[in-house]
Amino acid sequence: MKNYISILKKSKLFAGVGDDEISSMLSCLGARLFTYKKGEYVFRQGEHINDIAVTLEGRLHVQKDDYWGNRSILAEITVGELFGEAYVSPEGSTLINDVVAIEDSAVIFFDVRRVITTCPSACRFHSIVVQNMFFAISEKNRKLVQKIVHISKRTTREKLISYLSEEAKSQNSASFTIPFNRQQLADFLSVDRSAMSNELCKMRDDGLIEFKKNSFKLLQ
Asked: What are phi and psi of 124, to 5 degrees?
């Protein structure tokens, strides 16, 4: 587990905490490390969890399938990102989504009760971690609001323009790559894949974009 200290240090949860302090806090926070093969479930809909988690390797998708197998991708979780915090509560809320590894991944879990409660040793960086968790949750809420902005658009073109514009802004470049393949992008934007692919071609023909696989360039 100590091999991942450098990754944890770069995560939002441990921002401002040194290597030695993180190492000493792992036991305090009830840390457990698990690995997952591509396609394996980290969490399943209906489960009750008492942990928050940070991705150390790979990528995860928060997704939901309906009765007929239609999939919606709600979010992608990359290395260093916190997840699980939305479903830990004393009332026993259960997961309404699945969390699935889309690459071979490693995840570290922390007992949320130990995170939000000062430990017996009263480590001086514990309060920083609690503060960091609050800010990380705020950032995730911002991303969720932005996703709602994308999918609330009326047409497939408007959804694509909204999403691609936001990616260009966040990457500070008119040329950028996105973390989704075509099916995943359609699932993320809640549109039909064929209709979306057709619209991308129309946008290219209209001189709005250039693209190859998951690389895009926005044109004036």
From this structure: -70, -15
Q: What is the pLDDT of residue 115?
A: 86
Domains of the chain: 2-142 (2.60.120.10), 153-218 (1.10.10.10)
Element spanning 76, H or E:
strand 71-77
Q: Contact at 8 Å (CB) between 44 and 96?
A: no
Q: What is the secondary structure of 157-197 as a DSSP string?
A: HHHHHHHHHHHHHHHTSSEEE-S--HHHHHHHHT--HHHHH
Nearest in space to 81 (alpha carbons), one of 63, 58, 111, 104: 58
64-121 confidence digits (pLDDT tens): 998 888 899 999 999 999 998 877 766 657 888 999 999 999 999 999 888 888 766 6
Burial class of residue 90, CB neighbours in 10 A (0-12, 13-18, 19+): exposed
